[in-house]
C-alpha cells in the first residue's frame, strides 16, 4: 500500500477514504461538512466517500446535530461491528488471540500458553491457528479483513517474517504465509512495542500524550519489558536491550546476570515464574521494584534526553499508589499511565491489521505533507 502512486485518482480516493474513517474514529458525531473542513476536502468528494461508506455498512447516520440556524446537519459514526480483524499477541508466557471490531475492541478472545518448549515452530503456529479458528467460529468470515500479529522481537519491514525473538527459539519464520495459507486471511506482523505506540496514538487523539515533538520514553511492561523512543511521528527501538539494564543489586536474570530490570520488575519475576498477570501483582510491587524501574528510567533518559515517560502494556494497569511512588523515585521526569488500559496488547495487535486494511495510519503519516 505504501508504494501507491498518489497522483492516480484511485489511490487518492483510497487514501481520502482512510482519512474520512480516521476522522470519524477520532472525532465524535461529525457531519459531512465538518469532515470536509477538518480534512480540507471539497464537499462533493467528501459526500461521495461518506455515501459509499454508508452503503458498505461501515458508517451510519446517528441523528441530527443542533444548529443555530438553517438546515440541521446529520451526525455520522463508524459501525464498530461492520468488519473485524484478528489480533494475535505473542507474549513471553502467554499468547492472546482475539476477534476485534473496527475500534480495536475485543469481542471474543482466548489466551493460550506460549509454548517455548516445542522443537518445531510449526507446532506452536498450529496451536495459535487453532485458537484463531475457535475465536472466529461464530463470525462471518467475509467480514474479517485480516490478522495482526504482535511479538516482542524483530520483524521484517514488510511484516511477513519474524526475524528473531528473545523469548522464542525462532529465526526467520514466515508467520504471515502460515496464517494466510490456513486461515485464508491477510496477515501482517509487527514488533509489539511499535504496535502499542500506534494504538496509543489513536487512544490519545485529542490529547497531548504523544503530540510532543520532544522525545518520549515509551515502556512496554508485562511478562517481559521493552522500550521505544517516540519522537513526533518517528519511533526508535522496540528491542529488549532495555530489559537487561543493570537496575538493581539483586535478581538473577534468565540471561545469567544479576540485577537486570527483567529480573526485578516483570510479571515473570514478581510471580516467581507462576502464571500470573501484572495487573494482579501490584500488591507485590515494593519500593525495591519501583526503585529498579526508576533506575532504568533515569539511565535511559540520560541517553535519550526524554522528560516524559509512558508506561504501557500490562503496566497500564499500574495502581495510583504505585505510580505515585514511581514518580517520587524519578521526580525529574513526567511519568504517565498509558490510555490503553489492561487490554493494551490485544488492542495493539488489532491496530496492526486496522492500520493496514482500514485506517492506513502509517501511510497517511508518510504522505500527509502532500495532502
Q: Topology, pairings included?
A:
Elements: H1 9-26, H2 32-39, H3 43-55, E1 59-64, E2 74-78, E3 84-90, E4 94-100, E5 106-113, H4 121-135, E6 144-151, E7 154-155, E8 162-165, E9 168-173, H5 175-183, E10 187-191, H6 192-203, E11 216-221, E12 225-231, E13 234-239, H7 262-265, H8 267-270, H9 287-304, E14 308-312, H10 320-329, E15 334-337, H11 344-359, H12 361-367
Parallel strand pairs: 3-6, 6-10, 11-14, 14-15
Antiparallel strand pairs: 1-2, 3-4, 4-5, 7-8, 8-9, 11-12, 12-13
Helix pairs in contact: 1-3, 2-3, 4-5, 6-11, 9-10
The gross shape turns out to be globular
The percent range for helix content is 25-40%
Instruction: Please give the alpha-carbon distance between the first and last residues.
Output: 16 Å
Radius of gyration using CA atoms only: 22 Å
For the biggest β-sheet, the strand order reads 5-4-3-6-10
Going by CATH, the architecture of the largest domain would be 2-Layer Sandwich
The main β sheet shows up as: 5 strands, mixed
CATH class of the largest domain: Alpha Beta
Order of helices and strands: HHHEEEEEHEEEEHEHEEEHHHEHEHH
Count of DSSP H/I helices? 12
Care to count the β-strands? Answer: 15
Strand content: 15-25%
Query: Which homologous superfamily in CATH is the superfamily of the largest domain?
Result: ATPase, nucleotide binding domain
Number of domains: 3
CATH topology of the largest domain: Nucleotidyltransferase, domain 5
What ranges have pLDDT less than 50 throughout 5 or more consecutive residues? Answer: none
Structural class: alpha/beta
Mean pLDDT across all residues, rounded?
90
Amino acid at each position: 500500500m505504501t508504494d501507491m502512486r498518489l497522483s492516480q485518482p484511485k489511490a487518492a480516493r483510497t487514501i481520502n477514504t482512510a482519512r474520512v474513517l480516521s476522522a470519524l474514529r477520532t472525532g465524535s458525531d461529525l457531519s459531512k461538512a465538518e469532515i470536509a473542513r477538518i480534512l480540507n476536502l471539497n464537499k462533493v468528494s467528501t459526500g461521495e466517500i461518506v455515501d459509499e461508506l454508508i452503503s458498505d455498512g461501515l458508517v451510519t447516520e446517528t441523528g441530527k446535530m443542533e444548529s443555530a440556524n438553517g438546515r440541521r446537519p446529520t451526525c455520522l459514526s463508524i459501525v464498530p461491528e461492520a468488519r473485524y480483524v484478528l489480533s494475535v499477541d505473542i507474549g513471553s508466557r502467554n499468547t492472546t488471540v482475539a476477534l476485534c471490531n473496527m475500534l480495536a475492541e475485543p469481542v471474543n478472545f482466548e489466551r493460550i500458553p506460549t509454548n517455548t518448549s516445542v522443537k518445531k515452530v510449526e507446532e506452536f503456529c498450529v496451536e495459535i491457528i487453532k485458537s484463531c479458528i475457535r475465536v472466529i467460529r461464530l463470525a462471518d468470515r467475509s467480514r474479517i479483513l485480516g490478522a495482526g500479529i504482535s511479538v516482542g522481537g524483530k520483524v521484517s519491514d514488510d511484516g511477513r517474517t519474524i526475524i528473531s525473538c528473545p523469548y522464542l527459539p525462532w529465526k526467520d519464520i514466515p508467520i504471515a504465509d502460515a496464517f494466510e495459507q490456513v486461515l485464508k486471511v491477510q496477515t501482517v506482523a509487527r514488533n509489539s512495542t511499535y504496535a502499542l505506540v500506534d494504538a496509543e496514538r489513536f487512544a490519545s487523539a485529542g490529547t497531548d500524550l504523544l503530540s510532543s515533538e520532544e522525545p518520549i520514553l515509551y515502556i512496554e511492561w508485562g511478562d517481559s519489558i521493552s522500550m521505544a523512543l517516540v519522537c513526533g511521528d518517528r519511533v526508535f527501538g522496540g528491542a529488549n536491550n532495555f530489559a537487561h539494564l543493570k537496575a538493581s543489586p539483586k535478581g538473577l536474570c534468565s540471561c545469567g546476570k544479576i540485577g537486570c530490570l527483567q529480573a526485578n520488575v516483570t510479571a515473570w519475576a514478581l510471580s516467581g515464574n507462576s502464571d500470573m498477570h501484572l495487573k494482579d501483582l501490584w500488591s507485590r510491587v515494593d519500593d525495591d521494584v519501583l526503585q529498579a524501574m526508576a533506575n532504568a528510567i533515569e539511565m535511559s533518559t540520560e541517553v535519550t534526553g526524554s522528560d516524559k515517560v509512558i508506561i504501557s502494556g500490562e503496566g497500564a494497569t499500574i495502581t495510583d499508589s504505585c505510580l505515585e511512588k514511581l514518580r517520587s523515585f524519578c521526580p525529574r521526569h513526567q511519568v504517565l499511565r498509558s490510555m490503553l488500559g489492561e487490554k493494551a496488547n490485544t488492542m495493539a495487535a488489532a491496530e496492526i491489521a486496522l492500520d493496514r486494511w482500514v485506517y492506513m495510519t502509517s501511510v497517511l503519516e508518510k504522505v500527509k505533507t502532500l495532502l
